[in-house]
Design a protein that fits this description.
Layout (H helix, E strand, L loop, with lengths): L9 E6 L5 H10 L3 E6 L4 H7 L3 E4 L25 E4 L1 H9 L3 E17 L11 E14 L4 E6 L7 E4 L4 E4 L11 H12 L8 H16 L3 E5 L4 H14 L3 E7 L7 H11 L6 E6 L1 H8 L5 H20 L5 E5 L4 H9 L17 H5 L2 E3 L7 H10 L4 H4 L19 H20 L8 E15 L2 E14 L7 E2 L4 H14 L3 E6 L13
Parallel strand pairs: 1-2, 1-3, 3-4, 4-9, 10-11, 10-13, 11-12, 13-14, 16-18
Antiparallel strand pairs: 5-6, 5-7, 7-8, 8-9, 15-16, 16-17
Helix pairs in contact: 5-6, 5-12, 6-12, 8-9, 14-15
Length: about 525
């Protein structure tokens, strides 16, 4: 199939700043239809040349009432394609056609039940629909030609559609899981209303990516920093399929990895010899740990690790002649967040360890085959490429590794203890069939000591904390309510099997206000 075919069917998602805009795009992608997110202030020419089959207007934190608030880009309604407005998007559409929106004295937030009055988007669904509301403003007067599709006692106009034109509005959020029929609404929108067929599949994505990689790099060599994480593993498998021996993978053992991480990567990409990867393993553990000696500040640790990685990677890259390209595992959320940064600045919670400084220093061109994909799509093509389920669905691991799971100074003895404790925690989760039920789980080494008793001896050793969370997007997370017996087994094993730990505690903080990682 020609490379462009899978993106011929495309939906344009206009972002008004909602926390759930990425969920909208993910729901559309899950139906098998390609879509892109672009900010509300894109120009008319872009809207026209993008040539979407349909447009979705997201929710947003602003009030649509008043001057200077975000408006729908010019040209959207001139395309003649179906438009779906969600929450703020519905209100903005109503105002654009002459309707009225007012601030509601009764804010709706959370689960709600709407009465379904039909219309092309909702007809045939249940008479009453469980949905998720999050709004203060509401449409109080419909524009000419619009009729009500659903209502609640506090929001009589909870969904609308135009009698003649393919215009639809939902005051609730179909993208969140609490809206039970949300996936069906998106399916109807892209297939029945926009006329898409569903070309965005894992197999088609792989074929498309392979063709584009070959066209992009030609006969040149490509170097990849293979960390063993999901993104870099999928990039390695994809590039290997596309260009074979032209790919050089460099795995840097920084001494900050999980137990057996190096061996597992070598087994997955070398010993099985299924992908024919040219994998170079660089043992730089002593170099990293030595540079971290005496450093306690988490940001300073991250900077040291990042710079050391660049130096080690650059040293290794110079050994390989003919390398013209640097492969990176950039994924679509990274692209979205980078594009959105010009519309508003967020506080820096922590810096991210990446190889972003390498291209300029090394004068290499970038190849980023995952930059159009969400994480769940990356996992699906990883499976389709033959990577193991365990590797594709492994929990996230921070770039700086165990260094940011040791509070304060990093020492080799601390790393050795933490590696063993972390392995015990994950092992017990797998034994209890809970590993895939939580989104991320790990152990944190704390810089405090407590008294313990082992046999007849008094022990004054360090404390570790267990952390397990449940999340869909990692922007918010709830602590996982693990069974007491599982926590008990983990604690007993850690204290009894590892010298240097006297006490185990469990972190019951959600995000926000806490972050998932401790540093």
């Amino acid at each position: 199939m020609p490379a462009a075919d899978i993106q011929t069917e495309r939906i344009l998602v206009i972002d008004f700043g909602s926390q759930t805009t990425q969920l909208i795009a993910r729901r559309i992608r899950e139906t098998g239809v390609y879509c892109e997110i672009h900010p509300f202030d894109v120009d008319t020419e872009f809207v026209k040349t993008f040539s979407p089959r349909g447009v979705v207007l997201s929710g947003g934190p602003e009030t649509v009432v008043g001057e200077g608030t975000p408006r729908i880009p010019d040209g959207v309604f001139d395309l003649g394609v179906p438009v779906l407005g969600i929450c703020y998007g519905m209100q903005a559409m109503a105002m654009a056609f002459g309707g009225e929106v007012q601030s509601s004295p009764e804010r709706e937030f959370g689960r709600a039940r709407v009465v379904n009055r039909g219309g092309r988007l909702l007809s045939g669904l249940d008479d009453e629909l469980d949905v998720w509301m999050s709004h203060g403003d509401k449409v109080t007067e419909l524009p000419k030609g619009f009729v009500i599709s659903a209502s609640t006692p506090s929001a009589p106009i909870a969904a609308v559609h135009h009698e003649d034109r393919p215009l639809f509005g939902l005051q609730f959020h179909p993208e969140v899981t609490h809206t039970v029929a949300g996936n069906e609404m998106f399916r109807r929108f892209v297939f029945e209303l926009c006329g898409c067929k569903g070309l965005w599949t894992a197999e088609n994505i792989i074929d498309d990516a392979v063709n584009r990689i070959r066209e992009q790099v030609g006969d040149d060599k490509v170097i990849l920093g293979l960390s063993g994480g999901v993104d870099s593993s999928v990039v390695a498998a994809l590039l290997s399929q596309a260009i074979g021996e032209q790919l050089v993978c460099v795995f840097v053992d920084n001494g900050l990895l999980r137990k057996n991480e190096r061996e597992e990567v070598e087994t997955a990409f070398v010993q099985k010899d299924e992908r024919g990867l040219n994998l170079v393993v660089v043992d730089a553990a002593d170099e990293f740990v030595e540079r971290l000696s005496g450093v306690e500040d988490p940001e300073e640790k991250r900077k040291i690790i990042g710079m050391t990685f660049i130096e080690v990677f650059e040293r290794e890259a110079k050994k390989h002649d003919g390398v013209s390209w640097l492969a990176q595992g950039t994924i679509y959320p990274d692209v979205i967040e980078s594009a959105a940064s010009k519309f508003g600045k967020a506080h820096v919670i922590k810096s991210h360890h990446n190889v972003g400084g390498l291209p300029e220093r090394m004068q290499l061109s970038l190849v980023e085959p995952l930059r159009e994909l969400f994480k769940d799509e990356v996992r699906q093509i990883g499976l389709a490429l033959g990577l193991s389920h365990d590797r594709v669905f492994r929990h996230p691991f921070p770039g700086p590794g165990l260094a940011v799971r040791i509070m304060g100074e990093v020492r080799q003895t601390y790393l050795d203890v933490l590696r063993e404790a972390d392995e015990i925690f994950l092992d017990e989760l797998r034994r209890a069939d809970l590993y895939n039920s939580v989104s991320q789980a790990f152990v944190v080494y704390l810089p405090v000591r407590s008294v313990g008793v082992v046999g007849d001896s008094r022990r004054y050793e360090h404390v570790v904390a267990l952390r397990a969370v449940e999340t869909t997007d990692f922007m918010t997370a709830d602590w996982a309510a693990l069974p007491y017996d599982v926590l008990g087994r983990v604690a007993n094993r850690i204290v009894n099997e590892i010298s240097g730990i006297s006490r185990v505690v469990y972190d019951v903080s959600s995000k926000p206000p806490a972050t998932i990682e401790w540093e």
